[in-house]
Amino acid sequence: MNKSHILFLTAVVALLTVFSQQSSVGDFAEQSDVGNPIRTGRATYDSDKQEYTIEGAGTNMWADRDEFHFVWRRLQGNFILNTHAAFIGKGVEPHRKMGWMVRTSLDADSPHAVVVVHGDGLTSLQFRRTKGAATEEIVSKVKGADVLQLERKGNTYYVSAARFGDVFTSEEVSLDLGDEVYVGLFVCSHNKDVTEKAVFSNVRITVPAKDNFVPYRDYIGSSLEVMEVETGKRKILYTAADSFQAPNWTKDGQALIYNRNGRLYRFDLAKKAPEPIDTGFAINNNNDHVLSFDGKMLAISHHSKDDGNASIVYTVPVNGGTPRRVTAKGPSYLHGWSPDGKYLVYTGERDGELDIYKISVGGGAETKLTNAKGLDDGPEFTPDGRYIYFNSTRSGMMQIWRMKPDGSHQEQVTNDEYNNWFPHISPDGRWIVFLSFLKDVEPSDHPFYKQVYIRLMPVNTMKARVIAYVYGGQGTINVPSWSPDGKRIAFVSNTADLK
Predict the structure, then answer these.
(1) Is the pTM value of this prediction over 0.90?
(2) Which of 177, 10, 196 is nearest to 79 (CA)?
């Protein structure tokens, strides 16, 4: 082979390397080695698992310059970045690093903000205020975090970290990195002669609603997600630019039912496509819809024009048909069906008070089950019919309660600093999943577009742990959404369009 051929092949390899580093990876536009490490990094995306694997080298990310492999996109305005992250293998250096990064440029000495986990478990907020300045650090109280979040709100960067199952611990710093920034995931080996690998799952790049959005008028996009309860692994099945809410899992395990713009849709899990459910005149349904325990009937809450647009409960065959009215009075917001199929439970507003009521599926007189001052909401029967779980503000914060089906023996089952809504009991009756809002939300409110936790609690101990870190709220998990085998749940998360 002559010298010209060697030079030609060298040029081709160089071009292929540049091309491979600039190709899109999942939700990211490009990937790059920053700081010119001597070993080339790379990233791949598994579309089935919705996971990123990143291999990176680099001497360090510290002092006045960085070396690492970066998978990135450009973003403007406010955003929230979230992922589960784990190193692959024991590694060589205890200070190998991985995490989220926001930086002004791809220069090695660029200003930046980083949420980083080291190989030895050290978790911190790292930042460089100006180009070429020394890196600063705020060490997190969390050791060995595997859930990482980096949020920008104006010129303030919030770093949140947790071990899966725990709530976030957060740090913050004020930085001016410019409006349009490089945002992405990184790996640094902390050793110029080796590369290290990490896998990133549940990667979510969220553009939140604008501060001045008007609830129930202004909406952002929605994602239909399913999650393995044991592992926390999530998968997005479907997205739309507008609002859909509150998925039920059908009893045959083949579909999810949700509402969108007042109508109900059946999302076929095999076809990965939604189809409308014919509910006759009931085309102004809210997100309170529940399947009967045998899966044959669907109860809905439709805003009836004949009743001053109040929510009225109806039943309809699960595949569609003419709705049959159940409640004479409104507003009535459906939430539960008894296991024997004979009764519905719902929240009714009567004389200015919101309480829980029970009624025969065929209609007739309603029975008031709660009398406490404040909001009682979200009633749901256990599969064995022994209890109705619900949420109530009667003790100050919104907390989970339960009672006998006749309303007796009302007892509080959660008592913490969060506002807990919509308890959903697993098919085997052993677990409860519910939504937790933070203290920035009024106890009686369950608004759209907040950072919330989905938490899981065993019935025998009532000790809750986090299983999903979500941007959502109203419409995320309002209705029973366990899979029939009790291994997964379905819910909705939200984001505006990525620009």
Answers:
(1) yes
(2) 177
